[in-house]
Write a structure and sequence with these properties.
The structure holds 2 protein chains of 2 kinds. Chain A is α/β, with parallel strands linked by helices. Chain A is built from 16 helices and 18 strands. Chain A has 2 domains: about 260 residues, Aconitase, domain 3 (2-Layer Sandwich), CATH 3.30.499.10; about 170 residues, Aconitase, domain 3 (2-Layer Sandwich). In chain A, the strands form 5 sheets. Chain A has a 5-stranded parallel β-sheet. Chain A has a 4-stranded parallel β-sheet with strand order 4-3-5-6. Chain A is globular and about 65 Å long. Chains A and B meet through helix 2, helix 3, helix 5, helix 10 and helix 11 of A and helix 5, helix 7, helix 8 and helix 9 of B. The structure holds iron/sulfur cluster. The site of iron/sulfur cluster has 13 residues of chain A, from helix 12. Iron/sulfur cluster binds next to helix 12 of chain A. Chain B: GO terms for molecular function: 3-isopropylmalate dehydratase activity. Chain B: InterPro entries: 3-IsopropMal_deHydase_ssu, Aconitase/3IPM_dehydase_swvl, AconitaseA/IPMdHydase_ssu_swvl, IPMI_Swivel, LeuD.
Chain lengths: ~475, ~200
């Protein structure tokens, strides 16, 4: 009898990876089976051209789910899309999914919304799967213990045609979040604090796994916020082990397994968490108890500071390349080095996106807004992440809290997160935004973006300036 | 199919900024295009053309650099959005090699599929190379020999597998590779996978 060596403890990432290996290639890459593919109108037109040019059909149409989100207007949905290019692109998605028999949620459907909100909501996202989407924030789905990663348009075509992709195994980074976040501190603040610590490309080549008591205590929405932002630290993949919170969120979702299959699935999902003693290539610790509400001052998500801190002073930075970058970012943002970031006047507030456009986010913002009004001269938008989020919020009366305070209440979509649909900043305008990227021009050419949490965005809306939400008295 | 890349020798453009994200390389509003024509005009658009349509001073509009096929960039080049348009635009303009300390992961994956070679070199080497590029040096890349030269002198080796050299040399077509050589294995895997996790195939 041969005695097998004891199995080496494996990480969640290793389990997900190993269970999808089709073939190891000679060049060191791995052909990985892809269970699920999410599509939107912007990243797939050229993918379908690649299929059609070769006369290819999707390998398994039911493994795909398409929904328009990036280019679609967030009001006037009863009329045709005004922008001819956005109209053509959305129509192209409809033609493509029609021709190829791909499951589709049209713009008129109550379930329409941002891919990364819709996938989990429908139970299309499940633990243990591989999921690809032509979108960098696909890391969001890792909150369910799924190996989910963003790909380019060519890879979208490959996934549709072959249900597999050649990938290279990432190194692993465990981020242990210890302690309890203080009042007013949310998953968004933890995400920004971590990106500031790691740098915008500091986790490149790594799959992040979040662990620790603070993570276990988070809702699925908060977990998604955290995984969503991992790409802003350069990590293509983020993971949180599935647990009771995950299962409770998924049970009964339209595309989640039912009956005996549900039980079998949960039994399998319980085997996924990293084994005791599994090794990671890097380990990072974040003390949630020491994190304040965060806000970005510059043009990269790594330019994040506590709301009670000051804009950094390039003169105090030794590395000339870094000092130069800071100077440029401060100039673009129209700020002054060394000045407190709190009190910076804003003229636009955007609450929404795949980072913070879920029901829990709208509730958190509404709690601050309730009984207050949007400051004079401020344009404030709430754009729910999906039609279902919008309906739930309306059932709770959140829409009235917002509209009575002077917010605009819109239809679901990406909206001002990427400014492709007409919702955008004008040059020089300054926003407090719950989205994920403060890149130059991201919210419109010349626009200046400060990233923050929904509660902080609400505080900015009612005061007209970047404000520490903890200093606002709770209103009844 | 990407255009073959075997060897080249040209001037190089330097853009030493940190974290040149794909929104800078290819602003989002041009993502509404549903074809791949005219990508080069969108490349670095908001750095090249001012709000009033005025030309800004940008190396991608310097006639002396119009034939450059090499870009020397700063750390974090291509971070951010997954848009493959960033790669298409660079290639469409004429860039075939980007040298940087590190790249956005998704950008690097997209680049390989389009015959754009990403070369990772230490940050101080990249700074030196940027200075050489600004001084008008000619950059040479020879894939079969796996070497990067500046004004004829070797500065670095290229870490490329035989398969990669071949793929760049013949033009890259990943869909065909997978469908021609690996689809049976995919099907076999799929059958086992279905047996293990039937709920994924309901
Ligand atoms: S909300 Fe923003 S980040 Fe999320 S998918 Fe849409 S454009 Fe991308």
């Amino acid at each position: 009898m041969t005695i097998l060596p004891p199995e080496r403890p494996r990480t969640l990432y290793a389990k997900l990876w190993d269970s999808h290996v089709v073939r190891e290639r000679e060049d060191g890459s791995t052909l990985l089976y892809v269970d699920r593919h999410l599509l939107h109108e912007v990243s797939t037109p050229q993918s379908f051209v690649a299929l059609d040019r070769r006369g290819l059909r999707p390998h398994r149409p039911a493994a795909n789910l398409a929904v328009p989100d990036h280019a679609v207007p967030t009001r006037g949905r009863d009329k045709p899309i005004a922008d001819p290019m956005a109209r053509a692109q959305t129509a192209r998605l409809v033609e493509n999914v029609d021709r190829h028999g791909i499951p589709f949620i049209p713009l008129s459907d109550a379930r329409q919304g941002i891919v990364h909100v819709v996938g989990p909501e429908q139970g299309f996202t499940l633990p243990g799967i591989t999921l690809a989407c032509g979108d960098s924030h696909t890391s969001t789905h890792g909150a369910f213990g799924a190996l989910a990663f963003g790909v380019g348009a060519s890879e979208c075509g490959i996934v549709m045609a072959a249900q597999a992709l050649a990938q290279r195994r990432a190194r692993t980074m465990v981020v242990r979040v210890e302690g309890t976040p203080g009042p007013g501190v949310t998953a968004k603040d933890l995400a920004l604090a971590l990106i500031a610590q790691l740098g915008a490309n500091g986790a490149a080549g790594h799959a992040i796994e979040y662990q620790g008591a603070a993570i276990r205590a988070l809702s699925m929405e908060a977990r998604m916020t955290l995984c969503n932002m991992a790409i802003e630290a350069g990590a293509r993949v983020a993971l949180i082990a599935p647990d009771e919170t995950t299962f409770a969120f998924l049970e009964g979702r339209p595309m989640a397994p039912k009956g005996p299959e549900w039980d079998a699935a949960v039994a399998y999902w319980r085997t996924l968490p990293s084994d005791e003693g599994a090794l990671y290539d890097r380990e990072v610790v974040l003390d949630a108890g020491k994190v304040a509400p965060f806000v970005t001052w510059g043009t990269s998500p790594e330019d994040a500071i506590a709301i009670d801190a000051a804009v950094p002073d390039p003169e105090a930075v030794a590395d000339p390349a870094r000092a130069g970058r800071l100077r440029k970012a401060i100039a673009y943002m129209g700020l002054e080095a060394g000045r407190p970031i709190a009190g910076t006047r804003i003229d636009t507030v955007f609450i929404g996106s795949c980072t913070n456009g879920r029901l829990a986010d709208l509730r958190a913002a509404a709690q601050v807004v309730r009984g207050r009004s949007v400051a004079p001269g401020v344009r404030a938008l709430v754009v729910p992440g999906s039609g279902l989020v919008k309906a739930q919020a309306e059932a709770e009366g959140l829409d009235l809290v917002f509209t009575e305070a002077g917010f605009e209440w819109r239809e679901a979509g990406c909206s001002m997160c990427v400014a492709m649909n007409g919702d955008r900043l004008e040059p020089g305008q300054r926003s407090a935004s719950t989205s994920n990227r403060n890149f130059e021009g991201r919210q419109g050419r010349g626009g200046r973006t400060h990233l923050l949490s929904p509660a902080m965005a609400a505080a900015a809306a009612v005061t007209g300036a970047l404000t520490d939400v903890r200093t606002l008295e709770a209103m009844a | 199919m990407s255009a073959p890349l075997i060897r080249l020798e040209t001037r190089a453009i330097s853009l030493p900024e940190t974290n040149t994200d794909t929104d800078i390389i290819f602003p989002a509003r041009f993502l509404l295009k549903i074809d791949r024509d005219g990508m080069d005009e969108c490349l670095f658009r908001d750095r090249r053309v001012g709000p009033e349509g005025e030309a800004l001073d940008h190396p991608f509009d310097d006639p002396a650099l119009r034939d450059a096929q090499v870009l020397v960039a700063g750390p974090g080049f291509g971070c951010g959005s997954s848009r493959e348009q960033a790669v298409w635009a660079l290639v469409d303009w004429g860039i075939r090699v980007v040298i940087a300390p590190d790249f956005g992961d998704i950008f690097a994956g997209n680049a390989a599929k389009n015959g754009l070679l990403c070369v990772r070199l230490p940050a101080d080497t990249c700074r030196t190379l940027a200075a050489r590029a600004d001084a008008g040096a000619r950059f040479g890349v020879d894939l079969p020999a796996r070497v990067l030269t500046v004004d004829g002198a070797r500065v670095a080796g290229l870490d490329l597998s035989d398969a990669a050299v071949q793929a760049f040399g013949e033009g890259w077509d990943e869909i065909d590779v997978i469908l021609n050589r690996e689809i049976d294995e995919i099907r076999r895997f799929e059958d086992d996978h279905r047996a293990r996790q039937p709920w994924l195939f309901a």
